[in-house]
User: Fold these one by one.
Assistant:
Number 1:
Amino acid sequence: MTAANTLGEYLRARRELVDPKEVGLRVAGVRRTPGLRREEVATLAGISADYYLRLEQGRDRHPSGQVLEALAHAGAIIPVTVDGLPERAYLGVERLDDLEHIRSGAAHERTTLLSPFDSLIWDRLRARQLFGHEVVFEAYVVPEKRRYGYYSLAILHRGQIVGRLDPKMDRATQQLLIRGVYLEPDVAVETALLDGLSETLRDLARFLGATSVTVERSEPAPLATKIRPLLKASSAKSSRKRARVSATMTSGA
């Protein structure tokens, strides 16, 4: 989904999965479209078909709370309360299993990187409310005035945003440069974070076609010192694997 029309894309995908009989609609004749028609969702929600069409097409991207409640009444979305958010939020029906998984006490183990335009944080106010994180996009800031870099990525670790980093791909040397890693003041440099971040950086390097990852600096400084050996060991292992593959191909020729 694009950040610009998340609701519209979701509504379209959701209505195509709903059997009209599930919501009490009588079906007569052959239906050419799967699931519900737009006008049927509009009727269930108590809004005009034209307005619902604008929502799906992204021509109206800021529906009122009343409209969202109507869509929830129609079964298109589910109202939820989120700690840290003063207003009501809404959940996609297909994410109920994920919600129950979280409620069961399951831990968030994953570490990943988020662009400033990721749907989780592109709303800056919500990012502050949920994570205490200030989204920074400095592509249009002159280099000498940048704090975190041209296109810094937020670090999401075990359900919390713990910092950000400034990546740069050097195509000439096939090297992924991390010009800076900046942790939030209250975040400790622990083994779990080092392991998760090093694995994420290796994944990013593979995606970009880089053969190595170099962390130039960090705040606090010990993070760079501790993560470099992990990345170096991984780079050496990958080099040995490529050498074995090359040797096998040569001998086969």
Number 2:
Amino acid sequence: MNEERGRRGGLTGTVIRGVSLAGSGYLLGRAITLVTFIVLARLVTPELTGTILEGVTRSSILELAKEQGLDVEERRLGIEEWREGVASGAIAEVFACGTAAVVTPVGRLVWDGGEVGSADAVGEVTARIRQALVDIQYGRAEDTHSWMRRLA
């Protein structure tokens, strides 16, 4: 259903399969991923409205982003804002996150009549956040948040 809404809005291809659209054309997270944008030294992510899980990965990424000097903004994100922001350069990076996805770059936005981005692109901020999270998970960096628990 959300993929069909995306097509009606002029979006096609794999990108729309990575996000969900609310009836009003705003982005939502999916059960397994949450789409997040890096906008001019800000990390912008959909607000918690009951459609996105308040997950451990999401919370961890928001905390790590703040530690890395990014302002974190939780608000509604429209598909048009995504399209225009990537095209203009205001949105420098896009990534999805979740338990299995950890932090996965979204390289391209494709719609009828155009596309922006590069499927090979991994942004500097995306890579830095992912590396910080994975390093804590694997014990390569100190866990200053007490997120990890020794089981045995």
